[in-house]
Design brief:
The chain is of the alpha/beta class. The protein has one domain: 3-Layer(aba) Sandwich (Rossmann fold). It contains 9 helices and 8 strands. The chain has an 8-stranded mixed sheet, with helices on both faces. Helix 2 links the parallel strand 5 and strand 6. The two termini are 25 Å apart. Bound molecules: D-malate. The site of D-malate has 7 residues, from loops.
Length: 272
């Protein structure tokens, strides 16, 4: 079993990250950026990547998985990306493979925009490069109200069926319960901050052609939030990107089909 610890960094505005590693010099650092409205616990099936020599760093975005609204003051993907950069600084990591799933992908794009030197490689999982359109922004505003008036449970009711693929919902109720529990560990303030950050995120379509590092795009075949066709066009727009489609998985491909997801990731990492 790899060792795992929870790291606190930045004294002034507490931030946390989980770090999983094996004894000895790591072959590299792998940073996993979580989706909305979850937290670093969504990477429970990826801790084992440490068995392959990687130091696996799983930051929590501000306020996520906190008992109180500790530091849920971010209102932009720039804030989240700045926190990831501070974390890498704290860990004295000069460059890492950075993987973002959905909202985590939005943050990875922002981090690439401001600090491409931090990237040894990029993995974009179940995400999209474009900014919100007016309809999506209106829906975020509605969800901010829902979080305020009905709390995290109402957000979980809405999101769980959209996050998981049809096959998972039919065959794996235990995972549905786990995802729901992960969402419920978040305060409405953290969820509202994330919604604000996503609704104001910049467009990253223009960035794609300039990504000149090894890039892997992964998508669940049953992802309805960021459907496979989006990943196909994103991968086509990034020079030399590879694309892997994960059968029987929805938006949370890493949790729904962890073995297929990890195999694709390890195969990519082995070729760096
Ligand atoms: C996520 O999984 O992070 C969200 O579905 C992303 C989004 O709502 O745009």
């Amino acid at each position: 079993m790899p060792s795992c610890s929870r790291l606190r960094y930045l004294e002034s505005h507490p931030r946390t990250a989980s770090v999983s590693w094996r004894d000895g010099e790591p072959v590299g650092t792998l940073v996993l950026l979580h989706a909305f409205p979850l937290g670093a616990r969504m990477w429970e099936s990826q801790h084992s990547l440490a068995d392959h020599g990687w130091r696996v760093v799983m930051p929590q975005f501000r306020g996520f998985d906190c008992a109180k609204s500790d530091g849920a003051d971010a209102a932009s993907v720039e804030d989240y990306a700045g926190d990831v950069s501070d974390l890498l600084d704290t860990l004295t990591v000069e460059s890492a493979v950075i993987l973002g799933l959905s909202m985590g992908g939005y943050v990875a794009f922002e981090l690439y925009r401001r600090a491409p030197h931090l990237f040894r490689a990029l993995v974009l999982a179940d995400t999209r490069p474009d900014a919100d359109n007016p309809e999506a922004r209106a829906n975020r505003a509605r969800m901010i109200d829902v979080a305020a008036t009905s709390g995290t449970a109402a957000i979980a009711d809405e999101m769980v069926p959209r996050l998981l693929g049809e096959s998972t919902r039919r065959t794996n109720p235990a995972l549905e319960d786990r995802v729901r529990a992960m969402i419920l560990s978040n305060q409405p303030s953290a969820i509202q901050a994330a919604l604000r950050s996503m609704m104001t995120r910049p467009d990253s379509v223009i960035l794609l052609a300039s990504i000149d590092i090894p890039t892997l795009v992964i998508v669940g075949e049953e992802d309805t939030l960021t459907p496979p066709a989006m990943s196909v066009s994103m991968a086509n727009a990034i020079p030399n990107a590879e694309l892997v489609r994960v059968p029987l998985a929805g938006h949370l491909a890493n949790l729904e089909q962890p073995q297929v997801f990890n195999r694709a990731l390890l195969s990519f990492l082995a070729r760096l």
